Amino acid sequence: MRDQVDLTTGLPSRPTSVVGLDVSYDKNSPRVCAAAVRIDLTTLAVTETVTAFGEAAFPYIPGLLAFREVPVLMQALTQLRTEPEVLICDGYGVAHPRRFGLACHIGVLTGRPTFGVAKNSFVAASGELGVDRGSWSPLSEGGEVLGRAVRTQAGVKPVYVSAGYRVGLDEAYELTMALSPRYRIPEATRQADFLSRRALRGLGSEPFILLSD
After folding, report:
1. Which of 62, 87, 60 minimizes the C-alpha distance to 192?
2. Which 3 state secondary structure label does DSSP give 199?
3. Pairing label, strands 31-40, 17-25
4. All domains of the chain, ordered by start, with CATH?
5. What sign does the dihedral 13-77-37-132 (CA atoms) show?
6. Could you give the CA distance from residue 48 to residue 153 in angstroms, rounded to a whole number?
7. What global pTM score does this model have?
8. CA neighbours closer than 13 Å in the CB half-sphere of residue 125
9. 7 vs 163: CA distance, rounded Å
10. Contact at 8 Å (CB) between 123 and 96?
11. Can you tell me the distance from the alpha carbon of 114 to that of 7, in angstroms, rounded to the nearest whole number?
């Protein structure tokens, strides 16, 4: 599947919305919940939410997280009313030991432009990073640039951005910043995380607004 990753085709135009993806796990069972949340890029309003439930049948193996999460994420994506313009995953794209993280996996399967924003660096090292919002440093390994460490908020820990499928690294960076005006985590995946945890606890999946990080 790694050979099918297309990083040469950028977005034809600036998207009007982005769909964020995340999965939450039940601590006491193999039950999982995936959420897909569509965010308007101009207002950052939530315009659509869907959830899907399943079980984590694949064991936890570092570097192979996609095999646990892709099946239930694909279930969620099939429920969206319209095809997403861009998908953002809570995880890695090519900044991955096999150069094929969750964002690459989802992109290949759906054919949709996809990128990943992870909370921690998994494989590559970044250089010195400024403290200002928007500062970034290349994520590289063996001379190969795999992504960027990005400071989405001044003085907070960076996130780690990498292209997944049919999205350039510059585009992934710009979308990450557009989705992160107030919080460290991009709004699309931040809302998907909240929704999946809420739905897993049986609290419903109605539209909502997060008031704090």
Report:
1. 87
2. helix
3. antiparallel
4. 2-200 (3.30.2170.10)
5. negative
6. 26
7. 0.89
8. 5
9. 7
10. yes
11. 10
* Joined tokens for residue 157: 């820990």
Q: Residue 124: its pLDDT value, please?
A: 61
Residues of the chain scoring pLDDT < 50 = 205-213
Instruction: Yes or no: say if 115 and 89 are a contact pair by the CB < 8 Å rule.
Output: yes
**Token pair 């192979």 is at which residue?**
64
Tokens of 4: 């099918």
Paired tokens of 72: 């239930």
CA distance 75 to 126: 35
With residue 72 as reference, give the H or E element that holds it.
Answer: helix 66-77
Whole-angstrom distance, CA of residue 83 vs CA of residue 166: 15
Interstrand relation of 114-118 and 159-165 (parallel, antiparallel or unpaired) = antiparallel
- What pLDDT score was predicted for residue 64? 67
pLDDT for position 121: 81
